[in-house]
Amino acid sequence: MAASYTLFRRVAAKSPTFLSTSTITKTFHLQARSFTSNDNSVSLFNKMSVGNQRKYYMLGGKGGVGKTSCAASLAVKFANYGHPTIVVSTDPAHSLSDSFDQDLTGGTLVPIQGLDSPLFALEINPEKTKEDFRNASQNNGGAGVKDMMDSMGLGMIADQLGDLKLAELLDAPPPGLDEAIAISKVMQFVDSPEYSKFTRIVFDTAPTGHTLRLLSLPDFMDASIGKIMKLKKKLSSATSAFKSMFGKEQPPLVEGASDKLEQLRERMAKVRDLFRDSETTEFVIVTIPTVMAVKESSRLHASLKKESVPVQRLIVNQILPPSATDCKFCSMRRKDQLRALDMIRNDPELGSLVLTEAPLVDVEIRGIPALQFMGDIIWK
C-alpha cells in the first residue's frame, strides 16, 4: 500500500432526503449489470457481484473491529458496480450514519448522497417503532396497530394479541425486540414488491451476541408457534369432548387464528431458509489481529456452523504495516498481530476461511470517498 494518498471530501452536504418504500421503485431506472466470467482466477469481489439475482451479505463480529466500515464500503462497491443496493444496520448502537457522514436515523430508507448509482441505507430504529405502535394504538380504537403490523408482515400476531394495551406493554419492551424488528424487516425485503429491484442487501449486524440471537430467532419462533398450535388443537379436542358429554351442540371451528399462525410459521421458515441458503446468503466475519478477537471470532464461526449459516470469508482489519523506523511500540504491536494471524491460520474454525487482510490506515473512514478507498483495499 502506498504510504500516502489523497481523499477528496465533500465540501457541502445536501440535506438528507427520506423516502417511503412506496416511492422507491420510482427513484431509479438503472438496472444491475450482468456479470459473467469463465476465468477461474476471477477476483473474489467479482464472484460476489456476479448475477442479478438477489443476494444478502451479513457482516458481523466482535464490537469495535470495523464491521460498519466494511459493510458500508461493500455496499458502496456493489452500487458502483451497478447493483441497486440497500445497507441495513441491525446494531442498536448505530454508526452507519457516521460512516456515510449522513443522517440515516429516521428508521426509513434514505438515498445515499455522493453516488450516481442507487444505494439506500436504513438504520433500524426500535424506539421509533415503539413510538409508532403507541400512536397506532391510540388511533381507530387500536385498529392502527393491526395495520402497522400487517405492513411489517406480523399482522397475524396482532390478531392473537386481542385487546391487550400495546402502548403500556411497550413501556417495558421485552428482550429481543431489536432482533424481532430486524427479522420483520428481512421479511419485508423477501416479500414486498417495493424491494424487488434491489439485487444486493448488506447487513451491518450488531456485536456477536445480538447477531446470534437474530439468526436463531426464526428457529425459536418456528418451534414456539408449533407448540402453540399443538396446544390449541389439544384444548380444542378437550373442549369438544367436554361439550359432547353434556349433549351441547358443537359450533363450527374457527380456523382463522390457526391459519394465521401457520402463515407466520411459514414466513419465519422462509427467513430461516434464507439465512442458510449458500446460493443467496453469505456471512462475513470481521475481526482484528488480537488474541481476544480471534478467539471470539472462532466461537462465532462455530455457532454459525451450528445454525447452518454459510461463511466463506474472514476479514482481519487494522493490520499494522511493517515499520520502516526504529519504533519499539510499532514493532511490539506488529509481533502481537503476526502471532494472532498465525492463530487464525491454525485455528480449526477459521483456518479454512478465505482470509482478507486490511491495513490500518492513517485517516478516519468516513464519507463516500473514504469508503470507496477502503472498498478498493478490502473487496478486490
UniProtKB/TrEMBL annotation:
Cross-referenced InterPro entries: ArsA/GET3_ATPase-like (IPR025723), ATPase_ArsA/GET3 (IPR016300), P-loop_NTPase (IPR027417)
Record-stated family: Belongs to the arsA ATPase family.
Protein name: Anion-transporting ATPase-like domain-containing protein
Alphabetically ordered keywords of this record: ATP-binding, Coiled coil, Hydrolase, Nucleotide-binding, Transit peptide
GO biological processes: tail-anchored membrane protein insertion into ER membrane
Organism the protein comes from: Artemisia annua (Sweet wormwood)
The keyword Cell division appears for this protein: no
Pfam families attached to this UniProt entry: ArsA_ATPase
Reaction equation(s) it catalyzes: ATP + H2O = ADP + phosphate + H(+)
GO cellular component terms given for this protein: GET complex
UniProt-recorded Gene Ontology molecular function terms: ATP binding; ATP hydrolysis activity
PANTHER family: ARSENICAL PUMP-DRIVING ATPASE ARSENITE-TRANSLOCATING ATPASE, ARSENICAL PUMP-DRIVING ATPASE-LIKE PROTEIN
Record-annotated ArsA/GET3 Anion-transporting ATPase-like domain positions: 55-378
Coiled coil region boundaries: 254-281
The keyword Transit peptide appears for this protein: yes
